[in-house]
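A.,

Following up on our hallway conversation. Structure tokens first:
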């Protein structure tokens, strides 16, 4: 994404969500949409992205800080991507728009990683709970 202010090219990312329940049942993207927008700013995901950038210095990826910035458009602050050079906010709307374009474009760069969410998220999804050597979802629930 080109910075609207200083015109530097920045690299953003988005999460093509594949999530698994405690028992390892695949959670379909439609089911995971409940908050996929904020998903990319979860500390575990940001960590994964930073780690990738660190390990692939050859790609020369420019990812600015991810933090709360004030947006004059919505007159409020929210967690956002920003320019690595001038720290200008990349508004949610523009980022979403770019994401939508990417959804249907050939992927130039993808990275698959695994994270463990530190916070337990509960969503009711019908599935055969077959944990194999993992945990029954119900057990996890009771452990809390
Ligand atoms: Zn900039
Ligand atoms: Zn289960």
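Then the amino acids I'd put at each of the 144 positions:
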């Amino acid at each position: 994404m080109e910075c609207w202010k200083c015109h530097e090219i920045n690299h953003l990312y988005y999460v093509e969500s594949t999530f698994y329940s405690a028992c390892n049942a695949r959670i379909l993207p439609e089911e995971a949409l409940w908050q996929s927008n904020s998903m990319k700013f979860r500390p575990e995901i940001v960590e994964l992205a930073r780690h990738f950038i660190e390990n692939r210095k050859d790609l020369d990826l420019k990812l600015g800080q991810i933090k709360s910035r004030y947006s004059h458009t919505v007159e409020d602050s929210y967690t956002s991507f920003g320019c690595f050079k001038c720290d200008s906010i990349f508004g949610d709307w523009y980022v979403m728009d770019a994401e939508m374009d990417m959804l249907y474009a050939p992927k130039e760069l993808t990275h698959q990683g695994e994270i463990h969410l530190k916070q337990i998220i509960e969503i009711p999804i019908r599935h055969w709970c077959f944990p194999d050597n993992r945990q029954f979802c119900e057990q996890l629930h009771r452990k809390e």
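The chain has a mean pLDDT of 85. Curious whether your intuition agrees with the design.

B.
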